[in-house]
Amino acid sequence: MEQKNKKLSTQSYKGARDFYPEDMRARNYIFETWKKVCRKYGFDEYDFPILEPYEIFAAKTGEEIVKDQLYSFEDKGGRKLAIRPELTPGTVRMIAQKYKELVQPIKWFMIGNNWRFEKPQLGRGREFYQLEVNIFGEKSVAADFEIFSIIIDVMTAFGAKKEQFALLLSDRRLISALLSNALKLSEEMQAKVRRLMDKRSKMEKEEFLASLKELGINPEQCRKVEAFMNCSLESISSIIPPEILNENDGYKSIKELFEMLNASGLGDYCRFDPSIIRGFDYSDGLVYEVFDKNPKNSR
After folding, report:
1. 132 and 191 together in one domain
2. Which of 8, 120, 167, 262 could hold 15 in an S-S bridge, CB 3.0 to 4.6 Å?
């Protein structure tokens, strides 16, 4: 009887939000701007269910998300499912399903909502929307250049100027050159160090070095990892020997990409930053993030 008389809450689930008509107008404007820019570059829109087999994320999504943030459950048939925390694994599943039938290069974009069980924070709840833009079947740096052009066009379409945001980039193959080729770390140790490097921006220098030491990294290796995290494209040869660096595909790709960006007038929006790691296991090449330059942004 008490349960029946209990007053139902009018609040949405913590970390989710309701969209009243005035909110929908703003959301629709954002989504339509995303779509307009993507279609200008010849990308096709796609979609897939918010529920996916659990193993898709267990295999490729970052360990922290799978262990601590993934909404997962068993359905009535005993199948383990998950609410998607990101769009990339589902996208790859779709591509793999019909890869031989699809005309390449495949240029797709999607706007979808995702869920992660994490502490709601400014600008990010447990439910959030994401624009996913991908090119499959094109290995040249031209594909990366096109994605960067879309990102910058999206930002400027909203009125953002180059003084207000920056596209920071690195390459996972450069990190491999450091950890594997230069420091000779085992694959298991490389994975541990990469995870720590991904958290470097949230740690003080001494805390970071102490954490590396706890992993079993010697002082000289610790020094080189820390120096790598703060180097420029011009100074990286003082950390990774030139004979390794000049043969590294990641280093070659970044240099070629900057040549294209500078030639097109987009170089001022972009900056090499080796601290951009990305914790996802499927990231094996160029990695990048867009940062708000407002001094009130604590990141």
Report:
1. no
2. 120
Distances (CA, A) of 182 to 222, 227, 239, 256: 12, 13, 8, 23
Answer yes or no: is 155 within a domain.
Answer: no
Q: What is the pLDDT of residues 142-199, one digit of tens each?
A: 999 999 999 999 999 999 999 999 999 999 999 999 999 999 999 999 989 988 998 8
Q: What is the DSSP string of 137-191?
A: S--SHHHHHHHHHHHHHHHHHTT--TTTEEEEEEEHHHHHIIIIIIT---HHHHH
Contact (CB, 8 A) for 264 and 152: no
Q: How many domains does the chain have?
A: 2
What pTM was estimated for this model as a whole? 0.87
- List Cβ neighbours of 37 (8 Å cut-off, separation of 6 or more): 150, 153, 154, 157
Return the SS3 of 261.
helix
| Residue given tokens 């595909």 in the structure block | 249
32-to-27, 140, 234 alpha-carbon distances in Å: 9, 29, 40
Whats the size of the chain, residue-wise?
A: 299
Phi, psi for residue 171 in degrees, rounded to 5: -150, 130
The domain in which residue 182 lies consists of 170-292
Sheet holding 106-115, edge to edge: 44-45, 106-115, 127-136
Instruction: Give me the amino acid identity at 292.
Output: D
